[in-house]
Design a protein that fits this description.
2 copies of one chain form a homodimer.
Chain A: H1 7-17, H2 20-25, H3 35-52, H4 54-62, E1 65-67, E2 70-72, H5 77-86, H6 105-139, H7 142-154, E3 158-162, E4 178-181, E5 187-197, E6 207-213, E7 226-231, E8 233-235, E9 241-244, E10 247-252, E11 263-268, E12 274-279, H8 285-321, H9 342-374, H10 378-413, H11 425-432, H12 442-454, H13 460-479, H14 487-508, H15 513-518, H16 520-544, H17 553-565, H18 570-579, H19 581-585, H20 587-591
Parallel strand pairs in A: 3-6
Antiparallel strand pairs in A: 1-2, 4-5, 5-11, 5-12, 6-7, 7-12, 8-9, 10-11
Helix pairs in contact in A: 1-9, 1-16, 3-6, 4-6, 6-7, 6-8, 6-9, 8-9, 8-10, 8-11, 9-10, 9-16, 9-17, 10-11, 10-12, 10-16, 12-16, 13-14, 13-16, 14-16, 14-17, 14-18, 16-17, 16-18
EC number (chains A, B): 1.3.99.41
Keywords (chains A, B): FAD, Flavoprotein, Oxidoreductase
Family (chains A, B): Belongs to the acyl-CoA dehydrogenase family.
């Protein structure tokens, strides 16, 4: 079956749960015309259903081929990519000065979910280009921008991000690729990078690589890393393609999923060194990375959301068709679709509720990023930047964790058929498995949340958010709608648990940092469970007052399910954080015995 | 890296946590010599490490091939199978009257974990044979037993179980394969079966199929199903192989995992009908199935345990070798193995603790089965049968759920390498994904737990177990060992939550069965979390008094970790059961809007 973008759910999440409407009303989006949101998403949904979704299985089955340094993508992929750029999808949030459409990141975030849901391995290519655009736009010279930015924004050329080396994964500071200064102001780069997504492919004429390397006189660690732009083909003064640069794909990985997305080993310097151009200042490459980290991590979170929604749609359709057994009380001669079984209903609701919560958290991160860039009031900008920084690790880790959980439930609902590859349910699980790993493992996200987002200013960012969420809970309570069940009570418990856990971590961080770090992952889960529950409740409240949304009660039931089945775990997670550290600290006795 | 059976952990779990020592002391195992347990397990571990483990990746990469109805297994597999039967591993728990060694099921359960850990796709073949042996032994005629039992027990021939058809999976009663009575007292069977594990292969001369089919005059549903023994090759009076029977492999599945285990479509009747022999009585085939269900489900649970342990061993080794970053407070110039990071420690402990709990639950199920067969006192036998029936769905579902969770954590610890197939971590996740599905989905296990195991006699079986577990908690408290941390308190909360949830379900079952069914899955998880925690605590208590076990404190820390990080979720799970049903019941408004 194909994928259909759930436009109504997305609009409710974006405009209400994530606060786009309020931000537009407050003037932070200038003269953005909210009317176009739905139209863009409808078009994106159509493109995804018609062009991208049909290639998802094709790409998984065919994978990619490497021969003589050239990568051939799956049948139909180069053509789909050309349709993609022709339709302007690569340029949605690109700068207007360079041919982009200048639309909000929040709108592009929804599109990113749509691309991931329809064909995550395809959507990965523009994600990397987006990071390249961000780095170049923020730190590149005018000359480099004039040569490269327009073609990256249009998608005529794609971009790669090259950080990882065998000994330098999460520990970027351990990288060894080296750069030498050339007389003409350019550089020659030598070394080998691994795990380079779309490092080589046949969908565009040129590929623009962004490579981290060290200068000979650079300090050790992360303070000695510089960022270089290294085109696959050099670009002549007239913009035409020149000589082949000394950067080649020397191997591709055989992976669990994302079969259609080439993961390349890139070798530089076999022929005198790859010609590179410095981005930003020497030895300040990590700062350039930090610039783009928020958006890249958010995009991976959106992959989790998209994969979860795809898995849900497929499982729901299966559960409505597949007949096995019968509802309680029905005659033995009858055969009912398995969706009648309460246990199957629970799995489907779990899938849908988790997906919806991760979606709104991710969209809210995008809105905060937008406001941090677009608002005119410096205080508003700063607050939005703080909010975006706080939400980013949650959007990344919570969404990708639930992406895996939801995809696994999707397999489960299919029963034996779920284990058969042609069903397609297993592909979502395989594809999803990388998302908690790349762009900073989810463990690193959790540590980032505790040490860099919670810790500053006595937890100020977290207290501000909890204040806003509490107001939502008050509203749920004030609604007196019995359909909310115990939603308000569960959310209040969740926020109280979050507050206590936050305080505990703040107390431990200065002098017992290992105790705090031991609780980072359950703390992030607790955060997502409380935050997601409040956001779904706020959407349900909004839906109750809206025209034309159909049965608004379904959003109430969804929020209720999440609060009663997911947020309810908050207290246990809090206690894991605050009472579980000693056992973790004592782990060596167990693990190394 | 290869697999090493954790013999000390296994012995502690089997003898103490699972209660083998107590059962032997009570005389339920006759003159079983406990001294041989360790010797058998050491030998099994050696065979697994030397013969089976090296073929695990080979089988995954090569898979199997079907040509002209013949299945070729992976290189080295037929030879390994011959070594397997020559070493007597197929016959461990087989009846002595038919050449088996007559050893306890509990011992075979540990071996089953070892086979699954070293090579789950290989181990699956003897698992199916074991079910065939059970069915034949319990319900077959003396004539059939004399012809087939010895060769199945030795493993010279393998067995299959053929229930599933496209329209009849969990709903076995919907099957349509038909059987006609022949004049000579045999039957002719026609139809197509799917998902038949090792339905065809090249490791033995003959395969003995056990097939469910309907007689022409059979009642509808499960009451009209008969069980037939259908050999691939007919057997002559002198025991030699005769004509090829009319049952053929017409297709194999391309699966997410278990690549080396053929999953066959079997076609019967293209040449006049497969000659079959009735097992048990006509129309009583389902009763024969129920006979073997406990053991088959337990064995799948043990696959979950084995896969979890294999994933853990691999992740632990990686975490000790892979250097990234450094411990808090270390110099930036230093690079530490990632096991120093508290978040990695947490993941490893989670893997180990979950595995250990699932292991003991599974072994305890095997001990209960043994006692139900072996004890002389009818009351003891009956109580043990009730205990085995209660534990079986938990052993199956909890162990296979955690098998997937642990395998996924194993991938996560490997970072980007975890997504690369050659690392091997991903294979465990792919292989594990079928275990919550086959032999009764975990949803069906949960429903079985609630409706058939909890419900009878006002919950008597559950209350008896909670009583025993409470005694363990009392002992933990009485130990006054500060290393237990809040273990006793957490376990007591867990048991209280289990008791309340059980009572709530018992109240709802008669008149609001859907409310009870909606909570079945979280109830099973709650049960496993409380039960597993108590069992690990009992092992820690035992270890503290034992000589020669090394640092016993590690078992205390492990029990503590489980109680503080897993059992702590009990109250939330209870509330999901008792407060979450309304949202599930209201699901249609959400799902079908």
């Amino acid at each position: 079956m194909t994928y259909r973008a759930p436009i109504n759910d997305m609009l409710l999440a974006l405009n209400h749960g994530a606060g786009l409407n309020a931000a537009v009303a407050a003037g932070h989006y200038g003269n953005y015309d909210s009317e176009i949101t739905a139209a863009v998403l409808e078009e994106a949904g159509r493109f995804a259903s018609e062009v991208l979704a049909p290639l998802n299985r094709v790409g998984d089955s065919n994978g990619i081929k490497l021969k003589d340094g050239k990568v051939t993508t799956s049948p139909g992929w180069p053509d789909a990519y050309q349709r993609w750029i022709a339709a302007g999808w690569n340029a949605v949030s690109g700068a207007e000065a360079y041919g982009g459409q200048g639309l909000p990141l929040a709108l592009n975030a929804v599109c990113t979910e749509i691309w991931a849901a329809s064909n995550v391995a395809f959507g990965l290519c523009p994600l990397l280009t987006l990071s390249a655009i961000e780095a170049l736009d923020a730190h590149g010279s005018e000359e480099l921008k004039n040569i490269y930015l327009e073609k990256l924004i249009s998608g005529e050329w794609t971009g790669t991000m090259q950080l990882t080396e065998p000994q330098a994964g999460s520990d970027v500071g351990a990288l060894r690729a080296r750069a030498e200064r050339a007389d003409d102001g350019s550089y020659r780069v030598f070394g080998t990078k691994i795990f380079i997504t779309y490092g080589e492919h046949d969908m565009t004429d040129n590929i623009v690589h962004f490579v981290l390397a060290r200068l000979p006189d650079a300090p050790a660690g992360t303070k000695g890393i510089s960022l270089f732009l290294i085109p696959k083909f050099l670009v002549n003064a007239d913009g035409s393609l020149g000589a082949r640069n000394d950067i080649y794909c020397s191997g591709i990985e055989h992976k669990l999923g994302m079969h259609a997305a080439p993961t390349c080993t890139m070798t530089m310097g076999d022929n005198g060194g790859a010609i590179g151009y410095l981005i930003g200042e020497e030895n300040r490459g990590m700062q350039c990375m930090f610039t783009m980290m928020n958006q890249a991590r958010l995009c991976v979170g959106l992959e989790g959301v998209g994969l979860a929604d795809r898995a849900y749609q497929q499982a729901l359709a299966f559960a409505q068709e597949r007949k096995q057994g019968r509802a309680v009380g029905e005659k033995p001669s009858k055969s009912d679709p398995i969706i009648v079984h309460p246990d199957v209903k629970r799995m489907l609701l779990q899938m849908r509720a988790m997906t919806a919560a991760a979606r709104t958290i991710s969209y809210a991160t995008a809105v905060a990023l937008d406001v941090s860039f677009r608002a005119s009031d410096p205080a508003v900008k700063a607050a939005a930047a703080t909010r975006a920084a706080l939400l980013t690790p949650i959007a990344k880790a919570f969404s990708t964790d639930i992406g895996n959980e939801v995809a696994s439930l999707g397999v489960q609902i299919h029963g034996g058929m779920g284990f058969i590859e042609e069903t397609g349910a297993a592909q979502h699980l395989r594809d999803a498995r990388i998302t908690p790993i790349y762009e900073g493992t989810n463990g690193i996200q959790a540590i980032d949340l505790v040490t860099r987002k919670l810790a500053p200013n006595g937890g100020e960012a977290v207290w501000a958010l909890i204040g806003e969420l509490t107001a939502i809970v008050d509203e749920v309570e004030a609604s007196n709608d019995p359909a909310f069940g115990s939603t308000a009570a569960k959310l209040r418990e969740g926020l109280a648990a979050l507050e206590r856990a936050s305080n505990w971590l703040l107390q431990r961080l200065p002098n017992q940092p290992n105790d705090a770090l031991a609780g980072a992952t359950p703390y992030l889960r607790l955060f997502g469970s409380a935050l997601g529950g409040c956001m779904l409740a706020s959407e349900a409240l909004a839906a109750r007052t809206m025209e034309g949304i159909g049965d608004a009660q379904r959003y109430v039931t969804l929020a209720r399910f999440f609060a009663e089945n997911v947020t309810v775990q908050a207290t246990a997670l809090e206690r894991t954080v605050t009472e579980g550290a000693d056992a973790v600290t004592g782990a060596d006795a167990v693990l190394l015995a």
